[in-house]
Amino acid sequence: MKDEHALKLDYNNALAENVGEHGLKLAEIRRELPRLATIAKQLKAQEEAGQLGFRKLPSAAEVRAVKQAGRRLRAVCDDFVVLGIGGSTLGGIALTAALAHPQHNLLPRQMRRGPRVFFADNVDPEGFEALLQVVDLRNCCFNVISKSGGTAETLAQFLVVRHRLSRALGPSGAKEKIIVTTDPKSGFLRELAEREGYATFDVPQAIGGRHSWLTAVGLLPAAVAGIDIEALMAGAAAMDERCRKSAGLNSPAEVAALIPYLAHTTRGQNVNVMMSYADALYRVADWFRQMWAESLGKKLSTSGQVVHAGQTPVAALGATDQHSQLQLYMEGPFDKILTFLTVERYRREVKIPAPGRKAPATAYLTGQTLSRLIQAEQQATETALAMAGRPSLALRLAQVSPHAIGQLLFLLQLATVYAGGLYGVDPLDQPGVELGKQLTYALMGREGYEAKRAELESWASRHKPEFVL
Amino acid sequence: MKDEHALKLDYNNALAENVGEHGLKLAEIRRELPRLATIAKQLKAQEEAGQLGFRKLPSAAEVRAVKQAGRRLRAVCDDFVVLGIGGSTLGGIALTAALAHPQHNLLPRQMRRGPRVFFADNVDPEGFEALLQVVDLRNCCFNVISKSGGTAETLAQFLVVRHRLSRALGPSGAKEKIIVTTDPKSGFLRELAEREGYATFDVPQAIGGRHSWLTAVGLLPAAVAGIDIEALMAGAAAMDERCRKSAGLNSPAEVAALIPYLAHTTRGQNVNVMMSYADALYRVADWFRQMWAESLGKKLSTSGQVVHAGQTPVAALGATDQHSQLQLYMEGPFDKILTFLTVERYRREVKIPAPGRKAPATAYLTGQTLSRLIQAEQQATETALAMAGRPSLALRLAQVSPHAIGQLLFLLQLATVYAGGLYGVDPLDQPGVELGKQLTYALMGREGYEAKRAELESWASRHKPEFVL
Question: Taking the complete model, does pTM exceed 0.90, yes or no?
Answer without folding.
Answer: yes
